[in-house]
Design a protein that fits this description.
single chain; alpha/beta; SH3 type barrels; 7-stranded mixed sheet; 5-stranded antiparallel sheet; 16 strands; globular
């Protein structure tokens, strides 16, 4: 059943104003039903307040309605454990909700299916991946598309069938498919061994000096750090992988019906980014990581004409809070862009960082976490739930 009510997790205090403008109070929105106008607020001190929207100012009512699920992305309440897919197709009258996944090798997916089968059988994890007969389930409302440097890797419904590796897209895709009535496309466009400070450097990044040498800006090269704004032919340049990944994703979207049968329209609903391992390999990239990540988020929204698209960033699984050196710099940068920190006000309610160390089952990003599928599944689920949280704000 589709919820008409906004359910808010981790809401922040708001100052509310009465309809006549003479009274104010502070409290967190707990829920709002646009159909009935019923509002529930947890006031400062913990008491619950139930009232109709009519007692509020026009500004407050407009804000409440802005929090309500949109027609193309209505969101169901997310249970702790997902049920099996129901074999139903999505409502194709609505635009496909496209989520673009970017990063490096661990976003590609390096979890072995053998370890996944073991986790399902011995630990009873991820029951939604298998049916009662023990076969892999298929989500017919989520399209799973993977483009790697203009080479299509797969284009099918979300299922582990015929795979020998899994990535975070399975946790992400099943969660988003469950909560969204509209069709969903998980569109992964990335390749391994790429850094944000060089290969994935976004447009708008200028060259800068670091320890006496010039570091190239977007579409610059070591011999010409500034570049001329054009793609460089015959050699690698700063931002080439950014260009390839964005162009690859746009190639899929330009022929939507080929990749989501029956679809004629889409919306870029969000982005997922899991990366950082290569940037920890040198001081210039790790020192600059936060600046580059902020620009990366902003530029992707511009390039896909999706200013309201949500953004989820995942940290490196092996890195703990308080870490020093290059890994600590990258982790701190990834956590800093979370809209809840207040450091970047424009990211409030639309960017969230997932601290993945609690979901890591050993190993490191450079070693692909030993191929342990639980790391990929648990991080994928955490990223998916984070996106749902943003969808409710």
């Amino acid at each position: 059943m589709i919820l008409a009510t906004v359910l808010v997790s981790g809401a922040r205090a708001r100052t509310w104003i009465s309809a006549d403008g003479t009274k104010t109070f502070e409290g967190d929105l707990q829920s709002y039903d646009e159909a009935t106008g019923a509002v529930v607020v947890i006031a400062r001190g913990g008491s619950k307040m139930n009232f109709k929207q009519d007692v509020l100012s026009a500004e407050d009512i407009a804000w409440l309605k802005s929090q309500s699920p949109k027609s193309s992305g209505e969101v169901k309440e997310l249970p702790e454990v997902l049920p099996d897919p129901d074999d139903k197709e999505a409502d194709m009258s609505k635009p496909v909700q496209v989520y673009i996944l970017l990063g490096q090798s661990n976003m590609l997916g390096m979890g072995s299916v053998a370890s996944l089968e073991s986790a399902i059988k011995t630990k009873e994890k991820y029951p939604y991946l298998v049916d009662e007969a023990g076969g892999w389930t298929v989500r017919k409302d989520v399209r799973n598309v993977f483009m790697m440097t203009f080479k299509l890797q797969h284009n099918d419904w979300m299922s582990v069938t015929n795979r020998n590796k899994v990535g975070p897209e399975y946790g992400i895709g099943h969660i988003l498919g469950y909560v969204t009535e509209a069709p969903v496309m998980i569109l992964k466009s990335c390749i391994g061994n790429r850094s944000l400070g060089w290969d994935l450097l976004p447009p708008g990044s200028e060259p800068y000096e670091f320890e006496g040498k010039m570091v190239p800006g977007y579409r610059g090269t070591p011999s010409n750090p500034k570049g001329n704004g054009e793609k460089v032919t015959g050699e690698w340049y700063a931002g080439k992988q950014y260009d390839d990944d964005v162009d690859g994703a746009k190639q899929i979207l330009s022929d939507l019906g080929k990749y989501y049968p029956g679809a004629t329209k889409y919306e870029i609903a969000g982005f997922f980014f899991w990366q950082g391992a290569k940037d920890t390999g040198n001081a210039e990239n790790s020192t600059r990581y936060e600046k580059n990540l902020v620009q990366f988020i902003k530029q992707l929204r511009l390039d896909f004409e999706a200013p309201d698209a949500k953004f989820v960033v995942a940290t490196l699984g092996q890195t703990k809070k308080g870490a020093k050196g290059n890994e600590g710099l990258v982790l701190d940068a990834q956590l800093a862009v979370d809209g809840g920190t207040g450091k970047y006000p424009e990211f409030k309610g639309n960017v969230i960082s997932v601290y993945t160390n609690p979901f890591c089952h050993g190993g490191s990003a450079n070693g692909h976490y030993g191929g342990n599928s639980e790391t990929y599944m648990d991080i994928g689920e955490a990223m998916g739930r984070a996106m749902v949280e943003l969808m409710g704000q």
